[in-house]
Design a protein that fits this description.
single chain; alpha+beta; Aminopeptidase; 8-stranded mixed beta sheet; 6 helices; globular
Amino acid sequence: MSVASLLLPVSGADFKAKFEQLRLRIFGRLRLGAYSRSLRYGLSRDLNVPFEKPNAKIPIEVRLATEDDLRQLLFFESSQSVDDRLEIAWRRAFAERGAKRCFVAVDQRDNKPCYMQWLFGAKDNPFIAELGGFPLLKPHEALLENAYTPAQYRGLGIMPAAMARIAEHAADIGASQVITFVDEDNIPSLKGCQRAGFHPSLLHHRVQMAFGLIKRHDFEPLAENDPRRAQKF
């Protein structure tokens, strides 16, 4: 079975999860409203620049995700917040659309996955164009997206430690510069990206209308002398 087919319903429990995923995506659309504007930072890391990777508070190993990893990470339970359930629903849909090259960080104490993130290269531009909301990649660029840390693993420094290591796998697909996008008000993630060696390089202005069905994206590169490039979050 492929990762893309991983989350297709094959039992009563899977069908229930599928229904919950659909319900949450509709809720997320409604929450966007008729019109919304948002700003995301595009942050980049040059793999040619030496960088000392941070460590998490627990021992982790980074590797490509297996089907079982995704099953453990992307499940719904009643104790989760609405925002967490929305995050999971989005990533389930992302996997089902055929997103490839998902990496996980694994807690080496019990071999359980504790973080996930997808890595794309220029050869994935057709998929990126289909997604919308991201600039197409140049041959030397890679994109890191859809990071997720389960609630029980937060506060352990896993995101920056794992992200720094996953980014270096971009070299395996011929990329030397890695970019990622984070909402301007998501300060914990922005700080985590900076700890992982990423720094602001562009702005993504996003307008969404009709509950997110109509979107406009504008990408504004930051000049080399723009003070926002050195901004600390």
